[in-house]
Each structure stands twice: as C-alpha cells, then as structure tokens.
Task: structure prediction
Amino acid sequence: MKAQHQFDSQTLMEQARNILRQNDRGGYTVPTERLYPYQWNWDSAICALGWQSFDEARAWKEIRMLLKGQWSNGMLPHIVFHQDSPDYFPNADVWNVSEACFPHGVEHPPTSGISQPPVLATCVRKLWEAGKQTSTEKGEVKLICEKILNWHRWFWSARDPENTGLVRVLHPWESGMDNSPAWDEPLARVPSTQNASYVRQDTSLIDAHQRPLQKEYDRYLYLVEILRDKDYDSRAISQDFPFRVIDVGLNSILQRANLDLKAMLDQFGMRSECQELEARIELTQNAFTKLWDPQHEHFYNRDEFTGELIRVPTSACFLPLFAGLAGNEQVSKMVSTLENWMDQKFLLVPSTAPDEPSYEPERYWRGPVWPHINWMICEGLSDYGFDDLSRKIRMQTLELISKLGFYEYYHPLGESGLGGSSFSWTAAVCLIWGNSTNFR
Result:
C-alpha cells in the first residue's frame, strides 16, 4: 500500500546531515559503514550536493577527492580505495590496476578498473551555480570541468569506438544497476570465474535475499579477471567480449552530463570544447531513437552481442526524461506507465516493472525503489512539465525515508527498508529536496 506518513521535515533534514557527517572519512563520503567502505563514483557526486546544503566547502572537497582517482586516459573509476578495509570484495588487490594507468609523477590512491554512470558534471553544475558568488575559485571549477570533459571523452572513445553516439558497458557494475534483470540474458553468456576460493563479504553483512545471486557474482568476477588481464585497455577488448550492452540509464545520464558540462564551459568561454560537446549531444540525440520500442512503448537497453533490444522495463527506462531525450509522445507513454503502477498501489519508481516475471521486490535492482534514481526521474518529469507527478514521487520517497529510515533501497509496497542502513545518497537526496523550493 502507499506510504501515508506525516513527517517533520526539519527533523528529517537534521538526521540526513548527521548521516553524511557519520559517513565522512576525512574528505570523502562512504555510502555506508562496512558494506561499502570506499569512495564510490556516482554516490560521491550526489553526496556532494547533499553536503552543499549545509557545508559548501566540504562539498567541493568531495569532488576533489573523487578526482584523485582519475586515470591518465581520463577514465574516472567507479571505486577509489583511499584506505584498505577487510569488509569489501573485490578490493584493490583483485582489480590490480597498473601504475601505468595513472598520471606519471602524481600521487594517487588505488582504484577499480571500470567506470560508473557519469552524474558528476550535473552535480558540479548545481554546486557551482548555487554558490559561485561565495565559494570555490572560478579557475579551480574550470580545471574540474576540464577533467570531467576528459572523462566524457574516454566514454566516447573507449566505450563507443565506432562513434555511434551510444556508449556501451562492459560490466554490469559499470551501469550502476548491478543485477538488473535487463542483464540476465547477456550475463548468461559469461562464464563463471575459476576462482572457487573467493569470499563475498556483502552477504555476511546484509541478508542474502536482498543481494545479487552467487551465480551472478561468479560471472561478475570473471569479467573483472578478463578486463584485468587486458590491462583495462579497450583497444585490446575484441568484439567477442561476452558482455557488451548499450545501457539506457548510463547513456541518459551521460547526455544530461554533456548538456550540463557544455553550460559550464560556455561560461568559461571554452568555445571549441563547447562545439565538441554540441556535436556529441546531437549524435546521441539521433542515435537514441533506436532504443525506443513503439510496440511496447518503452525505451530499452540493447544487447550489442545480438543487436536486439532487451525488452525488460526497468527504472533506467525512465532516465531519458532526465536527459531531455524523449519526445512528447514518448513522455506521455512513460507518464502513463508510472501512473498505472501508482494506481496499482506501488510506490514509485520500482527498479523493475512489477508485472515482469523477473520482478523481486526485495532484491537489489530487481524491484526495490532507489531514492537517487527517483531524484533524477523527478528532475526529468519537472523539466517536461509534469510537476504534480514529480511532487508525488518526491513526497512518497521522503515519507518512506522518514517512516523506515535512511536505507539503500525500499520495498515498492512500503513494507521495509532494504540493503545498507544510514545510507549516504539517501540522506543526500533528502537534503537536495529539502534545499529546494519545490520541497512540498
């Protein structure tokens, strides 16, 4: 049933601030204690926006710490291992990233070898435009933007070598939506690791029925091993690499990031870089139409191995709203789908369509509601003029958090908070919305 819970917004915001303080590790924010003991890429960008609502200087420090992990080719990894921890697998030793990947002569922390959805430019623009009269020097923001542009260029070259306008992911973790049922078919082609001795830490900290299956983890680790053996060099990865997927979510977030980055670079007078971004934005806009299925009235991911759309509706399928990539008719269909789910008493937005056979309301990306995805979908709905639906989703999410606590994700019928507790980006989303004139 729908969440019906009156909450004290001031108390909720103070609780959110305390969670960010609790998860602060001296300049970077861990998602939650033990379960995720390092700095994660898209978590950290969103956390910076949360910090901005009460400590702007700390918000910018979050960005600087994340960028310490950037590779010389521009790639910004999905995990930065600022310090070691026994609570997470795979750790830096498993990724075994070569020193040759990093800028020569620059001190850096160890990192993973893949990236993650690039929401950073969007968050940096919001930080900059909210506080540029009083905070970080313009020159430093320009330098940060140049580093982000190099990351986007890495996506365009390493993950779209044919220059189609759509980037691929080579690992489910790169999508940020690790065990989404959209990956079931392409992941089934991936062999299992031969490393029978590895030990997952997540299921010792969280109930296993809320986490990815062991057979999925065996394949995740195999992909890490293959990428590691090729030194994470995209040029060495052949066309028979078993997992190659065009991800609607990542491509939408990248398109929005390109738009936001261009807006910032325009303020800095970087004309040629803006033209470069304009060309890429147009290329993606044209290519994205191929991901729309008019029969099923959804945007879908595409399996590059088969060339076929993966017809599994997930919350990622609504992220084109965040990027302005949907036409009016497509937006109407997407809104209709969301309203239909709401009419069925589901809290929005389930990470997998509730009528899908693969829907599991408590297992990670196979059903639960994720607040940070709701933040992006709500932004998109408002941009398209659907303020009422955006407000309903926003208030449902805040009611969930207030009633159940600051969890990683939530049962779509409001029955329980799931995954990690005292979760940083859940707190950050509360603060982002609480700092908005559209809070109510």
